[in-house]
Amino acid sequence: MKGGKLLIFSAPSGSGKTTIVRHLLEQEELNLAFSVSATSRPKRGDEKQGEHYYFMSTSEFKKHIKNNDFLEWEEVYRDNFYGTLKSEVERLWSKGKNVIFDIDVAGGLRIKRKYPDVTLAVFVKPPSVDELKIRLKKRSTESDDKINMRIAKASVELATAPQFDKIIKNYELETALKEAYNLVADFIGLDKE
Question: What fold, for 6-187?
């Protein structure tokens, strides 16, 4: 696999990484394309196949694992697999794009280890675990049990922050968006003048 740059944004659920990634994708001069992950979890709300995720059954996902079709994959929760198909990154690179990921911590670090020279790994840090819980509850997309699972996982994920190239503290969204833009622009070599 060869092509553009890889830009990883990882964080516990509710940290704001998806909002930051969406903002960056709107900045045409960055020449970014979103890497759509594959998952075995069910669709939520208005999610669309091939836009939000490539939804597949657990058995289909396991078949892709066996065939070595993933750049990285993870069983995030029991029978809830997430992964990045090699074909997705190759498709975006063939269009001359830099690929941006909104990805879990473990998957982000795996990609960074495989492609250290072309990857910028950014950890988005929330103000606090309490604030994470508030944000997850506001979503109204998951049960209290699921939220509690995500909060428990967040503590483990926060401990991985020093393994990333950069940490953005998302305490105030506008500041975090500017910081993310500058990090990406510098990494891809965009002349900002």
Answer: Rossmann fold (3.40.50)
Token pair 């910028």 in the structure block, residue? 120
Tell me which residue has tokens 């969406």. 22
Confidence class of residue 178 from pLDDT cuts 50, 70 and 90?
very high
What pTM value is reported for the model? 0.85
